[in-house]
Amino acid sequence: MSVRIGDIAPNFTIATTQGDIDFHSWSAGSWVFFFSHPADYTPVCTTEMGRTAQLAQEFERRKVKCLGLSTDTVEQHLGWINDINETQNTNVQFPIVADKELKIAQLYDMIHPNESETATVRSVFIIDPNHKVRLIMTYPMSVGRNFTEILRVIDALQTGDQYGVACPADWQVGGDVIIPPSVSSADAEKKFPQGFKTVKPYLRYTRVDK
Ligand code: BEZ
Asked: Which domain holds residue 190?
């Protein structure tokens, strides 16, 4: 069974580079960037792990915990982390799940058999503090993820939650946001005293602080 947006992220208990974790206890009250990669000691994955570590403060500022996963062992992960720190000039401080038996990979549908029967593709799950899955992205093995987009979508989700708005194409922090069609214009006037621009009855823009 696959995991979908709006689902409660399935819980699991598993060994990681920072000891065993119960996922829901570990992530309680935080957002989570949960991501799989195909294998340790591979080049694209090395850059992605490095980038995640380099962005630690950006994730922390957004109250996001990072959790990596591949179908390698804790020992392999720990050896590889030394290489990541050395080559990417960083310090990996987030845990990496050792899913040698593919238990979590199967639970989260991270194995795409026509790509590999045993290695995970590059899946991303953004999970909110209530354990709800808010975003799913899947990248092929040959393309590293765009971390600017990962931070952007977290900002967009958090802005949407805070203000009850949606974010348009290519939205960036500080840009105009959209008043959802479910909000009447009478209610919008109360909810957005800063005002809003009506381009069409279903397309209304406003600005919020973030
Ligand atoms: C990599 O991380 O470089 C990689 C891993 C598996 C397949 C292709 C590339």
From this structure: 164-206
